[in-house]
Amino acid sequence: MHRNDLLQKLEAYLPENPKEVQFKEDFFLFIKTYGDCFERSLAIGHITGSAWVVNKDRSRALLTHHKKLDRWLQLGGHADGDPNVLNVASREAQEESGLKSLKLISSAIFDIDIHTIPARKDEPEHLHYDVRFLFKADDNEQLHVSSESKNLHWISLDHLDSYIDHNESIQRMAGKA
Fold first, then answer.
1. Chain segment 72-107, per-residue pLDDT in tens
2. What digits encode the pLDDT tens for the residues 33-51?
3. Under 8 Å CB-to-CB from 124, ≥6 apart: which residues?
4. Which domain range does residue 30 map to?
């Protein structure tokens, strides 16, 4: 079954945050219910992969100012049928930043989140079941802003609130880093 790798990673993931404990249960139900959970065409929601990218001393995180959502977020995107969400997170981080120094810190899940994406044009409101992995990169390397982004910026973890408008999931990841 193409969902087994993600189910095994989720089984091994032991969140401490009560919200993530509930998310984990919801992930299992979603993945087991929908065989096409990795497809963007699943209108109710779909699996996405993200990268929490920190610098070498973990004092700063790389965030993108997402063009469509007009918010500062971690790098990531749709699985588009790829059941290997670690590959999805890695691919999206490289495409959205241009970083050559990007290195995976651990292949274990770093964080999970389920969040609502608002309706747009021909796309109904839906959920993103987001699986996040921890990466590091050289914060002196030149960044390349993709067409999906307004900007990229290394942000001090001490100053995240001025960018993220109290986004609980980003604050949670910053606390873990």
1. 999 999 999 999 999 999 999 999 999 999 999 999
2. 999 999 999 999 999 999 9
3. 43
4. 4-176
Are 76 and 92 in contact, with CB atoms under 8 Å apart? yes
Q: What is the pLDDT of residue 130?
A: 98
In 3D space, the residue among 7, 22, 155, 20 whose CA is nearest the CA of residue 83 turns out to be 7
Q: Which structure tokens are listed for 145?
A: 């802003």
CATH code of the domain containing 50: 3.90.79.10
Domain count across the chain: 1
d(CA 136, CA 98): 14
Provide the whole-model pTM: 0.95
Are 72 and 118 in contact by the 8 Å Cβ rule? The answer is no
Report DSSP letters for the chain, one per residue: -TTHHHHHHHHH----SHHHHHHHHHHHHHHHH-TTTT-TT-TTEEEEEEEEEE-TTSSEEEEEEETTTTEEE-EEEE-TT---HHHHHHHHHHHHH--SS-EES-SS--EEEEEEE--BTTB--EEEEEEEEEEE--TTSPP---TTEEEEEEEEGGGTHHHHSS-HHHHHHHHH-
8 A C-beta contact, residue 160 and residue 171: yes
What is the distance, to the nearest Å, from the Cα of residue 120 to the centroid of all Cα atoms in its chain?
Answer: 20
